[in-house]
Amino acid sequence: MPEVEFVNLFAVAAIALAAPLLIAFAPPALRIPAVVLEIVAGIVVGPSVLGWVDADLPVQIVSLLGLAFLLFLAGLEIDVHRLRGPGLRTALLGYAATVLIGLAVGTGFGLAGWVASPLLVAITLSATSLGLVVPVLKDSGRLGGALGQTVVAASSVADFAAVLLLSLLFSTAEGSTASRVLLLVMFVLVVALAAAALLLTERSTRLGDAVVRLQDTTAEIRVRGAVVLLVAFVALAEAFGLESILGAFLAGVVVGLLDRNTSSHPRFRVKLEAIGYGFLIPVFFVTSGIRLDLTGLLDDPAALARVPLFLAALLAARGLPALLYARQFDRRSVLAAALLQATSLPFIITATQIGVLTGLMSPVTAAALVCAGLLSVLVFPASAVALLRVPDREPAVQKAEGP
User: Fold this and answer.
1) Considering the entire predicted model, what is its pTM?
2) Number of other residues whose CB lies within 10 A of the CB of residue 105
3) Could you please report the per-residue DSSP string of 35-92?
4) Contact yes or no for 78/156 (Cβ under 8 A)
5) What is the DSSP string of 192-248?
6) Which of 31, 67, 73, 142 is an S-S bond match for 148, by CB 3.0 to 4.6 Å?
7) CATH number of 71-274+300-389
């Protein structure tokens, strides 16, 4: 058996433990999302700065599991039942506008010689971090209101579409886009059949009683079932020649569909979040910082100048479509929605890693995009909260359609 060392994994886990504690002891004005500090700490201890920690095999394995769990929990956040009617149409129209804006700015960056694929840049800029947006809306008391539901619907569509497009158009697996579309259809059919089978199984009284009996024992049967579903969908996605992130994301969506009635198992999602946010996901973020190549970015002032431009592009691509809400909400709410929709980091990290692996994005450009994502997480949610806390001086208007 080859000798495996866990020193680097220990260092990464220690950083993951220290980051939220440091933030908790910081003055309120200086508190930032823990994910930002985790990535920054990874950069500092990684090869780009101090060179103390490397992403060796144990770290890479846990980091990969963290990415899968991050996408799984993102899919779990999506409430498919809310994606209907005018809200869905507005969200789809907004995402179409996002892709068009992203293509325009990506083409500009391509002409400047910064990127090889404007479409990859457009997709990278098109997602919203639903897991970061929902807590902000909840803390501001807007999650259950019209504004919160509109932003959540738009963010859900953006997350789903971005993962889907990235998997179809820029997969690291071999094969044409047309073949991937066919494989995607087959994969979705298999997922639908699996979901239907699980739903029928769940209705079995005998099995249901056994699950309820075992769910809060050391068997943790619901958690084990969710993990099996996650791994199965990831393996299926890879078998069909698609990106594993698509399988993880769809696994979360399926679990969310099946987990509609939580009265018999109120702690199920808390346990899943404990596994993800308590261990796996922080390792992914710290490792992303360790892997981030800042050398070229810091050595070249022209390359460093890409960061604010990418941040502005992110705000334009995801923020401008919020103007579609101008007929329903006041200007302050629309601006807050624009800032929240432009908050993105986990997907940017994933997309840039795929871009580097496929040779369509240089490590310097990837680092600049990730830094722009870090700034979006630092600046946009805090600014949105400030806007939402100010009492409205003009009432929200709901204009009637037609005469």
Assistant:
1) 0.80
2) 21
3) HHHHHHHHHHHSTTTT------HHHHHHHHHHHHHHHHHHHHH--GGGS-HHHHHHHH
4) yes
5) HHHHHHHHHHHT-HHHHHHHHHHTTSTT-HHHHHHHHHHHHHHHHHHHTTS-HHHHH
6) 142
7) 1.20.1530.20
Instruction: Specify whether the CB–CB gap between 131 and 152 falls below 8 A.
Output: no
CA–CA distances in Å: residue 3 to residues 6, 18, 58, 60? 10, 28, 11, 16
Q: Which two tokens stand for residue 163?
A: 């993962």
Residue among 319, 386, 394, 318 at smallest CA distance from 162: 318
Query: Of all helices (H) and strands (E), which one includes residue 105?
Result: helix 85-111
Q: How confident is the model at residue 100 (pLDDT cuts 50, 70, 90)?
A: very high
pLDDT of 399 higher than 50: no
Please write the tens of the pLDDT for every residue from 330-366: 899 999 999 999 999 889 988 998 888 888 888 888 8
**Domain edges within the chain:** 71-274+300-389
Pairwise CA distance, residues 126 & 97, whole Å:
10
Let me know: does 289 contact 40? Beta carbons within 8 Å.
Answer: yes
Burial per residue of 317-334, b for 16 or more beta-carbon CB atoms within 10 angstroms, e otherwise: bbbbbbebbeebbbebbb
Find, among 260, 383, 258, the residue nearest to 315 by Cα: 383
Smallest Cα–Cα separation from 358: which of 105, 29, 109, 119? 119
CA gap 11, 98 in Å, rounded: 39
- 156-211 pLDDT, tens digit each: 889 888 988 888 888 665 555 566 676 667 767 777 777 677 666 666 677 777 87
Integer Cα distance of 167 and 350 in angstroms: 11
Distance CA(306)–CA(297), nearest Å, equals: 9
The CA R_g of the chain, rounded to the nearest whole Å, is 21
Structure tokens at 166: 């990235």
User: What amino acid occupies position 353?
Assistant: Q
**CB 9, CB 59: distance < 8 Å:** yes
Q: Distance between CA atoms of 237 and 219, rounded to whole angstroms?
A: 28
